């Protein structure tokens, strides 16, 4: 599933380095456009259409999706994590794809320290950093029967479900090449 998204990451690497060189890590709410920084209110979305396979990768600070980044210990925090995870497990409702494209979910992977034990052991430094900056990564693969009808992805519901997400830095590889877009509540449509 990550093959095409890996290609997207490699193709956009020069852009990421150029932006990273001009911006330092910022934990404030200022908008600065860096694709790699952990910035509350900002998430990244990578989308790749390869033949009949559509891959979507979302990377977001947990703050945008659940309202905090610490381990959920209270019942209220556990409920917020469970609700966010349940929403992320329904990508067809978050990423409104044209029905004519006939896309069905083929695979999904969700990763976050908030969702439970990590898949590998962390060093002490990684463990401390993960408590300061917990992220949520979601990878989806759709099989589309008629990809020629996949002209746009409407993310209005995503912004409604996760209102603390103010901006999505989107990168797209599709039939007409690669492009970048900055999406928000008022501009929630990613066109191929």
TrEMBL record:
Pfam families referenced in this protein's UniProt entry, alphabetically: ZrgA
Signal peptide start and end residues: 1-20
Keyword annotations of the record: Signal
Domain of life (superkingdom): Bacteria
Protein name: DUF2796 domain-containing protein
Species this chain originates from: Aquipseudomonas ullengensis
